Amino acid sequence: MAKIISFVTTKGGAGKTVFNVSLAIYYTLQGKSVCILDCDPKPASFRWSQKQIFPNITAKQIKTSFEVAPAIKSAQVDFDVVLVDTSGALTDMTKAVVSLSDTVVIPSKTSEDDIIEALGMYNAVCGADTKAKPIIVINGVTSQAALGRQIKEHLVSKAAVVADYLVPHRSSFPDITLMNSAKAVQSKLTPIKPLIGELQMKGLLP
By CB distance 3.0 to 4.6 Å, which of 28, 73, 79, 139 could disulfide with 15? Predict the structure, then answer.
């Protein structure tokens, strides 16, 4: 049975869809079959899937919370990896996704508002009736690496699990959609490959 990895935030622009698409590319380059379930009313992952060049990636748009469980259970059987993109809000559909997930990735940028929102989402996942293991990923760290470490220490002090790797900058989703070769797309994965490796070591990603 495939692991269910969902990407959840309550703020736009944190990198949720970029990470989702990047992981899809990463796994298909490893020879795995990937299913993206896009539960976002603005289905950027699904729209990308209609233009992407990889035959091992299949995507489905999910429009209601009632579709979530059947879609996830079917994909778990038919694919090697299942990635679920959610809306930027804690909706009933997002709650349904979280309840069926194995790992919940919560990307956050470094602003105070983003960190507060990420911690709130983390606590919501921990308090939900789910087996899911949530992890906060600090994204958008550039020259202020020290700030990223301070934020990580703050979140850990609040009992949150935070990825050690600080993503140095947000990859460009428009750029990824325009790439027309595996080699070009693979180059866009460089900023998050250490993060993927860390989450695999922690048993959070296959």
Answer: 139
C-alpha–C-alpha distance, residues 144 and 183, integer Å: 30
Cα separation of 17 and 14, whole Å? Answer: 9
- Give the type of residue at 41: P
Q: Is 174 exposed, middle or buried (0-12, 13-18, 19+ CB in 10 A)?
A: exposed
What is the Cβ-side half-sphere exposure of residue 155, based on CA atoms within 13 angstroms?
32
The per-residue pLDDT for range 103-140, each reduced to its tens digit, is: 999 998 888 888 899 999 999 999 888 889 999 998 87
Distance (Å) of CA 42 to CA 36, 38, 45, 46, 146: 14, 9, 9, 9, 34
Q: Please report, to the nearest 10 degrees, the dihedral formed by the alpha carbons of residues 85, 88, 90, 95 taken in order.
A: 0
Predicted confidence (pLDDT) per residue in 73-84, tens digit? 999 999 999 999
Sheet holding 57-61, edge to edge: 57-61, 34-38, 81-85, 3-7, 103-108, 133-138
Q: Are 5 and 75 in contact (CB under 8 A)?
A: no
User: Which residues are CB-neighbours of 67 under 8 A, at least 6 positions away?
Assistant: none
